[in-house]
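Section handout 9: paired folding examples.
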Amino acid sequence: MNSWVNSAEILGSDLPLELSGTGNRRALLMDALREAVRSGRLAPGTRLPPYRSLAADLGLARNTVADAYAELVAEGWLAARQGSGTRVAERAVPVTPVHRPRTPERAARPVHDLVQGQPDPSVFPRTAWLASARRALAAAPDDAFGPGDPHGRPELRRALAGYLARVRGVRAAPERIVLCSGAAHGLRLLAEVVGGPWAAEEYGLPFHRALLASHGVGTRPLGVDADGARVDGLTRRDRAVLLTPAHQFPTGGPLHPGRRAAVVDWARATGGLVVEDDYDGEFRYDRQPVGAVQGLDPEHVVLLGSVSKSLSPTLRIGWMVLPQRLVGPVVTAKGEREQFSSATEQLTLADFVASGAYDRQVRRMRQRHRRRRDQLVAALERRAPHIRVTGIAAGLHAVLELPPGTERSAVRAAAWQGLAVEGLADYLHPGSEGAGQADAPRDGLVVGYATPAESAYPEALEALCRALPPG
């Protein structure tokens, strides 16, 4: 099939969406919605149908439409607020196509990539992974090649239960673990099961907030300081709170022990849920990793994890360690069959963990990232000693604190240097200003140091230093 066209009823009128071509249907839907906005067929403020309705009208999976909405919210094409649904974002002037001469793709790319969260793909352990794949396939039972169980392969759940208990202090039997395709997938499932509203740290991934909003779950910001999230701002109205306790994302620093205990007390007293995003809990450099909050109360904390930073985001394997009462509802929300993660890759990862290869890979990456961090700190001490670096005890990025009012100009200067880097304001919750407990927005750069190749990293640091405001 080369093209297909369906109609979606929006505010009582039919809007034809032309999803032409073959390939990823989420990408086709996103292209069609962008074009509808550009052409004026979808005016600013127009309310789109709920993702379930649009999925039914277009014959798509609900998750496909939900993911498309979330990504378009993150890009600024759409806006989502609890109680008002998803709408076309308001704009000061109509959006019109801008026709530019075609240039080679390479010319549009930055020379150096210091965007956070992207591991260097060249360090994927190909030989060890291939050895695990061979062993896993040779030992795989016949049912591994049939319809998948939505819980995930039992071999991987057993391996993860042992690994997480040993390394992260997690308390969970394999039956409490449900596999997913990553933290975003886990959040989507929890949004469907738990409902809203949620509280979230005032600094965090905009994509996660947009994803929750696309599922009707609004978030309100909790202030963040040197001790992590200010959990004393939680209320009985909050159904859940999304935290990064091991290393607050992106500002850095673990959640203070007193606040870890306080958030568990809040969950017990209110029946709320703590959603612990353990996105880089393994990558702590100056002392042993901080144990997971989940270990304090497995019945009130969900742990989300994945291999996207330690191995590769292309594997699309993550996990949820769930309270017993949520296992059944989450599996029901996921569907009758596993449709997100390959069974053979799950089996390979199970062998990779059980054989010790995963531990070796994490140690290797920890050493590499520590060395990268130290190079960044040394370059700043030499070239820009007036810039303070924070959040460097763990993770794959650092925050460079800038003088007030200089963040935007620093990002622009970095672009002129051929450097891809993000400002701290990109991660600030839109409701933080005036939230009552949040500080004034800070100026800073979020600098990822994992992606560049070894040979290119020194030049990337030089370009970064040239882009920084003078002292």
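Moving on to protein 2 of 2.
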Amino acid sequence: MSPRFASDASSALPLHVIAEDGLDAWLSDQPEAAQTWIAAQGFTGGLGQALAIPAADGSVMMAVAGFGTAAARARGRFHLAAAAAKLPKGIYQIVSGLPDDQKSVEALGWLLSRHSFDRYKSQSPIAAELLAPEAVNVTEVEALAAGECLTRNLINTPASDMGPPDLEQAARDLAKAHGAQINVITGDDLLKQNLPMIHTVGRAADRAPRLIDMRWGDSGPTLTLVGKGVCFDTGGLNLKPGASMGLMKKDMGGAAAVLGLAHMIMATGKQVQLRVLIPAVENAVSGNAFRPQDILTSRKGLTVEINNTDAEGRLVLADALALADEEKPDQIISMATLTGAARVAVGPDLAPYFSDDAGFVTALESAAAAQADPVWRLPFHDPYEAMIEPGIADLDNAPKGGFAGCITAALFLRRFVTHSRYAHFDIYGWQPAAAPARPKGGVGQATRALFDALDEILTR
């Protein structure tokens, strides 16, 4: 279950958020016993510090959370979540110290800190609860938290329980919850309906490939989200070494991200005609696996020379993007855990994206800052187009040389969108080390920023 704000205000404990430079002024207004206790416990207002202050009878009277310095806060995010994890069980109400323009994002961080992936655990951790701060849009913040938690749960689930049929079921459950329509094309029907590259990539697995197609909303601008749903990636015949295969349950992170974003959109009732397309496959090894040097014909008619079967994500996305583009929606957005080159370029914390649309860029980057959901723009660099043109076919799925791998992948995908505005996100989908509100494991990237920017992006 996704975390929600507490509803019982009668038992809420006051929580004061205190920056380092505001501690002395705050202490001057407190009872002597509280001053003595705080000094004895070494509380300085440092970032992430938390302290419960007892009453005379030993019960908790109030609590304080350190907010550090502006310089310290600039080096991270979800600072209140770090303190929340250290507070004893109870319901807390922020009564002072948290700036109005940071209430929503810090409240979101608190909710996210209460979520844990407990599908395979016998017990869930007990966490402190929060009353929604004043002026916070409760529906929206809870929808953002629920969408993010959905994304995390899907990514964290191992491939034994999150193959293409399971990913389909997750989409069906989401559609049912919001009254959306869903259609799924499975196995050889992909060939009959001209989705050949999705079929080719997934045909070697014992769980059939499929295209998940969900629709919601009947008014407003049209938006199509396309998410890479490679539920496990062995690399195919270009088999990955063991060290590189260890995290490949997360290779459906793009699909998990667009489902999380779809929940945010539907739960808040945005005026948009939403379509979600997820090519769900496993890149496996068997006698009918596709091979290096094969030439595939895509839905769009473009031919693709296979120079590495481990560059399969762009193949399944290409057919889905071509299908999306046929309806000429106002905006197409693809999300995928696509290239290691993107991780080398910007690391795990930033979500690199590609867009030639100045309005999209302006709206997204403003929203990313407001939502503590960092992104970084990379270029659709036209001079590199020649790198994805092998000569024997229209396109090369894995250009030799290794240069600009995330850019050439984005250029490859762009070839399949002709009529619509297009943006592509090459996300990591994984938190490599625990941080406030982000335990080690699957994580959403750029979805909250996109949600916040959508109205501006779609109404230009």
